[in-house]
UniProtKB/TrEMBL annotation:
<dbReference type="InterPro" id="IPR004843">
    <property type="entry name" value="Calcineurin-like_PHP"/>
</dbReference>
<dbReference type="Pfam" id="PF00149">
    <property type="entry name" value="Metallophos"/>
</dbReference>
<dbReference type="InterPro" id="IPR051918">
    <property type="entry name" value="STPP_CPPED1"/>
</dbReference>
<feature type="domain" description="Calcineurin-like phosphoesterase">
    <location>
        <begin position="44"/>
        <end position="222"/>
    </location>
</feature>
<dbReference type="InterPro" id="IPR006311">
    <property type="entry name" value="TAT_signal"/>
</dbReference>
<dbReference type="InterPro" id="IPR029052">
    <property type="entry name" value="Metallo-depent_PP-like"/>
</dbReference>
<protein>
    <submittedName>
        <fullName>3',5'-cyclic AMP phosphodiesterase CpdA</fullName>
    </submittedName>
</protein>
Amino acid sequence: MSTRRDFIGTGLAGIAALTLLPAVNTFANVNNEYNRQNKGRLKLRFALASDIHYGQPDTDYAQNTGNMVKWINADHAKNHLDMVIVNGDLVHNRPDLLPEIKTKYLDKFNMPYHTIPGNHDFADAAVWQKNFGYEDKYTVEFGGIAFVLANTADTKGTYICPDNVFIKASLEKFKDKKIVFVILHIPPFKWQKDDVFVDCPETIELLHGYPNVKAIFHGHDHLLDGVRYTNNKLPHFFDSHIGGNWGTDYKGYRIVEVDNENAIYTYQVNASQNPVLNSNKF
């Protein structure tokens, strides 16, 4: 398994910029628990997991997928999760396996779940509608919080920008919401020359044009489990990976919590416990 990529220009910039979002934290403590300063009741708590790569040859994809469901259900039993979002690359170049991963694994979640395609799902709106009952771009509302989810690849796995007409219409629809989260498997911005992302300046302009857009969540790069910023302002969070044959040495997922004062907390969970993550608090 590959080790995590050097975070020069990424993690260090993120640490400096966290002062712009003091309610956001990046990692769990070593025991995978995070103690919030505000002990009050949460308005929303959800998990994000990505990059299962179900069906990839020479990987333990069945065990990895089963572990994901077990880990997140256990988290839910302990702390309650309102939902889980599976952010792309559910399968590995095998859209025919989408019905299997849905019925055999995802339907075993003990909380509502939402999905969005990644570049290895080889999916479009018709494929996603057939398998999950909704298209490859859609919105979810949870009280005063809204989610905008959109596809970032075509049926051949080519990276594409999200549908910006849809993004704009959705952000306009939710402009009176207190908080909007955007879910995109592939980031629409290249921070470094070797990033396996895609530059989408119109998307970035849209995301920065609405102050209630508080964070963007991505999968795709299995080596990333922290935060990067666009314009030193808007955080883009990553969640490592669940499966596949490369990435961080551990497998994990991300938790996001919103309290009744609309403060946002997020931390990465080292679910496989190998190795233990550094503990950081800002």
